[in-house]
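User: two proteins, same treatment. go.

Assistant:
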Amino acid sequence: MLGAFDQRGGERAGGVVTVDEKRGVILAVHADPTQAEGPITDLGDVILLPALVNAHTHCELSDIREPLGRPGMPFVDWIREVIAWKEANLATPQARQNAIRRGWLEVKRGGAARVCDVVSALRYGDLPVYDDPLLHAESHLELMGHALGWAEDALLKAREFVGRPQASRRVAAGRRSGWQAGLSPHAPYTASLELVASIADVSRKAACPVSIHLAESEEELELLATGGGPFRELLLERGIYRKEHFPGGRTPLDYLEALRPAAAVSVIHGTFLSDAEIDFIARQPNFRLVYCPRTHAYFHDRSWPLARRLARCGSVLIGTDSRASNPDLSIFDELKFVSATAPDVSPRDLIAGSLSASAASSAGNRLNDWLVIEAPTDVADPYEAALHVRATLKGFLYEWRSRDA
């Protein structure tokens, strides 16, 4: 073994890991193999990495084989493609449940022990019962509404979703991991400012997390500022545009301020947030910014200012987004992509930031909380080796224990 990292991203130089087979935990990491007792299984040239968090995805879109549309296409045209695909493929609760289950499996295979998943289920019962002991899932109910009746219906669904008894533990009997209800007022072009503020109040009272797609495109900023542009045309096509809902003169900051009372807020994408809006997020202890690297690259030639936002916010979480804009749901491959394309962010800082997110959901030394990374031996720095283009995720450490049992 080349080495291991602890839950804060610090390196543990080591050659042998001692485990308790019955309890399924790591007892010690030894640099000197002679310090280990008992039989030794050779894992090869690998690095052990704590399991990660996929901070944003849409598992219900996991049956999409390749990203919809084409790279760099107008964002609103891509939204049309997503709407058409969902209407054709998610017409029944069973279809949605099956897709979400497949998505959960792909997320786990991609190195995540925790996922924040946005779902557009119509009712609480449309979601599959969570039964995976190795993945903690937050399901954020997607909520839309501008017209009064539509927004009121969304608010009723939100209260029902998070108000169910045992809503934070909707888990099959005997399972150790967990499921939690969350809410997602989708985006400014689909959720009114009043609905967003009401959802924040529901979140505060129910102590549930919230996520919102915000400042994802220039077309969104145009709609907020002027009430017009390509999003206006899309909403007119769908029969849901009303001039009074988009009076102009608004910015993403209005939505950030409306969300301030929420228990926890994930701001997804934030590509076109201003410096003042980034500073607002940095000042809120309950806010976190989420970057989806390969999805961003699918739409934009400009780079996402990760290093600058890390410096201002302290941390930025990483998500895969969905297969509608990404080839897979592997958070490990997402981190490798960032490492290869953001030379101003060191692999050490990237790993430390990603692991600080997973540490909160990890028991620390359980075998199912650790990833086995086959790393190149000709790269001296273990952080660079772990996220090198030639590094490969081989699976969770418990899988090796099972194979050799």
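Protein 2:
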Amino acid sequence: MIDKLPYDIIKKILEYTISINSPLLSYRLKFVNRNFYDIIDKYDNKLPQNICDNDIDKYILLKDGNIIIFQWLFDKNYNIIYTDVSTMILCDRLDILNLMINYKKYNSILFNRFYLSDGNISEDFDIFHFGKCNRSYLLLACECDNLNIVKFLLENKVKSNKNVIYFLQINAVVDYCLKNKNLKILEYIYNNYKYKINQKNLNKIKIFKQINII
């Protein structure tokens, strides 16, 4: 019945619907018909910040969501919290992390000194679907043995050079990689950030190299 209404009336109805529904529910309406698709695709206001997607829907989004969905959501100020980024790392969503770099709001989550009060402390916390995970994105990437995300966190040149906060955890990374034999990450850190490694860890690496190929 609604598809019989004039386009402008449908637009007003949908814009109101978006303002009172969770973001992913609003996005799904895009596939009702051509008018819905066009109106929602062109919607350029902010999404409601006080209405959240349920945990299961958000997990599926973070794990399997298409980059196009994230572009639509991010352009409308979608609410991403700290544990959401942890889920992206656990699900190897480097594509979404790279997209987040383009938004100031999300940079402040990716590169936040608040979560790195002590560069050598490994602190765990609970996360939906995964149980206990490391609070630090960099150390979590090491736990996943994901060299590409380690590089992403250390090499991205964001405004104000905020990525240097992860330099505080270089020695914690070395400790973890030596303990768990993450050879690729250890080799990358040694070759690129040797000047950040303390003497105690340099000595450990020297001994490690004598009994392992690195």
